[in-house]
Amino acid sequence: MKQQKAYIVLISLVAAFGGLLFGFDIAIFSGTIPFIQPYYHLDDAALGWTGSSLYVGCILGTLITGYAADRFGRKLPLTAAALIFAISCVMMGWSGSYNGLILWRIIAGIGVGAASMLSPLYIAEVSPASIRGRMVAINQLTIVIGILLAYLSNYLLAGYTDNWRWMFSSGAVPATLFFFCVFFVPESPRWLLAKGQAEKSRRILSRIAGAVAAEEEISRINTALHDEVKGKLSDLWQKGIRGIVFLGIVIAVLQQLSGANAVFFYAPVIFEKAGMNVQDQLFQQILIGTTNLVFTLVAMRLIDRWGRKKLMLGGSLGMAVWLLLIGLCYHFHFFEGAGLTTLVMLFIATYATTLAPVTWVLISEIFPTRIRGIAMSVATTMLWVACFALAYGFPVLINRLSPFQAFALFAGICFIYFLFLLKYAPETKGKSLEEIERELVPPAP
To answer: Any idea of the CA torsion for 59, 61, 64, 67, to the nearest 10 degrees?
Structure first.
């Protein structure tokens, strides 16, 4: 049993490297801001476009990957995503022009978007129900490890010539490691069974859960697949399905608009307005990354013990409070001592324990088997649309509005999110994917 659990953790960690790529890239950009903005003479709108161009690629990546995941499985697209990201990181760093930088950020986004969708999907499909929440949360753990590694990289490279070029290029290191490791993970047994490859599926499930549990799981999957046709985009609008798809989209979008990624993307801009110099800004990022990592580990202990809904409710309400208090610090110019830093760390701790990991768990669990790949693609695409809007608009927003008004706006979004979750979010703790499907999808008349 210990060997089986260790194997599940191992393959989940490899698959979750996709999350590390996402975390690394969003954080690495924030460290380049103090250097790239004067280098290319970027105004607020141009800075927003430079940051958000990655997410144009992410949107394209998720749209392509939904089809690829259902056609070719989970493993091949993950391999392609790693290769795309490794190459584009180097090309981003050493591009000869601003337009070249933007082009390679978009290409890098294709790899990040594909991996961000495939990693939690794959992990959910190979993990037993009893530990699935913790396993999918590994994806969030690798995101925050990627963020912390990028912050450390930024801090260490800041003193070098062409520092921002080396910052971008450093993303090729984890991407190359991911590329080689993904060859050693198995294909999703659920996808293999759906494609009629029962013997391969049985071998993988036996190694994951043991021979007896494998037969039980195969029986459950076959029951769910019985008489189902291949999911199409039009299936997402069927009665009983469209409500679940809408739920997944809202959960994904509001997580992005909660304000956390504004801190991750533009921490130097935020702390600059509090009067900090560049070195202090980069050090604050290391504190943010460390807090993020520590409380993601806390989340992995809680997610299968407390359940998804309780964590999401507590997180959205708590974040609303912290954001309002951060805004008040700017309103009353309360920048002396550690007050602002403490509130930012409390905000990040709350996000890391709740919304950050649980969102990925929920959207990997709630969609029916036959349309899971397509529905995950749509939900993740909308997540990236929201991410693009935030990355593009925040530099302009925080300069057009006062910092207090900007943070109060995010606090309001978090409170609306709390009310939505209170009414509509399901509890999926300890349930198999097939049980969740039976509860959420009404039987055909």
So the answer is: -100
DSSP assignment string, 416-428: HHHHHHHHHPPP-
250-283 pLDDT per residue, tens: 998 999 899 888 887 777 777 777 777 777 777 8
**Which of 250, 225, 130 minimizes the C-alpha distance to 437?**
225
pLDDT of residue 415: 96
Percent of the chain whose predicted confidence (pLDDT) is above 90:
24
Measuring CA to CA, how many Å separate 233 from each of 191, 230, 236, 402?
18, 10, 6, 42
Q: What is the pLDDT of residue 200?
A: 87
CA–CA distance from 278 to each of 34, 135, 198 (Å)?
7, 37, 57
Structure tokens at 79: 């391999």
- Spans of all domains in the chain: 2-185+227-440
The kind and range of the H/E element at 261 are: helix 260-272
CA distances from 424 to 311, 313, 356, 421 (A): 14, 11, 18, 5
Q: What is the largest CA-CA distance in the chain?
A: 68
Topology, domain 2-185+227-440: Growth Hormone; Chain: A; (1.20.1250)
What are φ and ψ of residue 127, in 5° steps? -100, 135
Question: Over 80: is that where the pLDDT of 21 sits?
Answer: yes
